[in-house]
Amino acid sequence: MKMKKLAAVLLASVMMLSLTACSAVSVDGEGGGTKDQKESSEDSGDGDAGTGSGSIGLAVSTLNNPFFVTLSEGAKEAAAEKDAELIVVDAGDDAAKQTNDIEDLISKNISVLIVNPVDSDAVAPAVKDAVAKGIKVVSVDRVVNGVDVDCAIASDNVAGAEAATEYLVGLIGEDAKVAELQGVSGASATIDRGEGFHNVADEKLDVVSSQTANFNRSEGMTVMENMLQANSDIQGVFAHNDEMALGAVEAIGNKDILVVGFDATDDAMAAVAEGRMAATVAQKPDLMGATAVETALKLIAGESVEKEIPVEVELVTE
Questions:
Q1: Are 214 and 183 in contact (CB under 8 A)?
Q2: Cβ–Cβ contacts within 10 Å for residue 121, how many?
Q3: Using CA atoms, how far apart are residues 177 and 139, in angstroms rounded to an integer?
Q4: Are 107 and 80 in contact (CB under 8 A)?
Q5: CA neighbor of 107 nearest in space, from 91, 90, 126
Q6: Quick one: pLDDT at residue 283?
Q7: According to the model, what pLDDT value does residue 22 have?
Q8: What is the spatial distance between Cα 148 and Cα 231, in angstroms, rounded to a whole number?
Q9: What is the rounded CA–CA span in Å between residue 13 and residue 226?
Q10: CA proximity to 302, closest of 109, 150, 129
Q11: Residues 280 and 260: beta-carbon distance below 8 Å
Q12: Which H or E element spans position 237?
């Protein structure tokens, strides 16, 4: 009898040890499941609506530019109206920082990434990482090269630049000498606005200088000063944005040189009204930001959206 009791005790002990061993499998994080199971689940994300935390990330190229400040404010207002969580990160016109910003947003488990690229090529790998995690992507103002995003929201930069250049031709006449202040190299806005300018200027004007000033006002002034030293008979300037145009105006001073810009920022609109700038192209950055958030919320809800949403532009003159 004692032997039977001893055998029963030993059997119970073996069973307890076996159960303890089974429950000692490594668990990754607080949510249960083995580490291998969780990794398998994470790797199998298929991008269906509803993935992520429901929050939206906005990776903006720079908040040192009034245009993108307005775009960001439009996005924030739309998010507040819809009671949506919006996380805004500022790359400061640094493509490497924007890559880090996007990777950080991915780690925050966002559901939709709204990206306004510093560089349309350089941002592509980080955006691909987001897509691989099942995150929906909306590009705004500038495209992401080589990535099939869910929606692209932008102004017609080519048409806007063509209109601005045609207006400049009408003011200074054909074959007049002009200069071009280019934006950040690689940015789709730079490429498109440059294309629109040259579509007209290469046939009707004499382009004596084209240099980048990185969409920056102080750089625009410095580059324009250098252009004038090399070509004192410049009659007109097309700048890829208003910040550079305003910098050019400072460099030009009282010289009889006409400047057209792009974006219709408050400072540029004032300069046009005062006759210091000839024209600017009006975009609607606040509408772009709001539309991007509204589109993101539709994607989160599983609704279909247009692949491209154009935002109209118009020429603003005195």
A1: yes
A2: 15
A3: 36
A4: no
A5: 126
A6: 87
A7: 33
A8: 43
A9: 88
A10: 150
A11: yes
A12: strand 236-239
Give CA–CA dist 180/187, Å, rounded. Answer: 16
Cβ proximity of 244 and 66 under 8 Å: no
Diameter over CA atoms, the chain? 117
Dihedral angle computed from the Cα positions of residues 267, 273, 278 and 281, in that order, rounded to the nearest 10 degrees: 60
Residues sharing a CB contact under 8 Å with residue 108, sequence separation 6 or more, in sequence order: 53, 55, 57, 87
Task: Note down pLDDT in tens along the chain; length 318 residues.
Answer: 444 444 444 344 434 433 333 332 222 222 323 233 333 333 333 445 557 889 999 999 999 999 999 999 999 999 999 999 999 999 999 999 999 999 999 999 999 999 999 999 999 999 999 999 999 999 999 999 999 999 999 988 999 999 999 999 999 999 999 999 999 999 989 999 999 999 999 999 999 999 999 999 999 999 999 999 999 999 999 999 999 999 999 999 999 999 999 999 999 999 999 999 999 999 889 999 999 999 999 999 999 999 999 888 999 999
Phi, psi torsion values for 282, nearest 5 degrees: -85, 120
Distance CA 161, CA 212 (A): 16
pTM of full prediction above 0.90: no
CA-to-CA distance for 79 and 207, rounded, in angstroms? 44
Residue 132 contacts residue 44 (beta carbons within 8 Å): no
Instruction: Give the whole-angstrom CA distance, residue 262 versus residue 241.
Output: 4
Spatial CA neighbour of 184 closest among 209, 212, 144: 212
Residue-wise DSSP of 163-224? HHHHHHHHHH-TT-EEEEEE-STT-HHHHHHHHHHHHHHHHHSEEEEEEE-TT-HHHHHHHH
> 36-72: string of b/e by CB count within 10 Å (b at 16+)?
eeeeeeeeeeeeebebbeebbbbbbbbbebbbbbbbb
Question: Which helix H or strand E contains 86, and what residues bound it?
Answer: strand 86-90
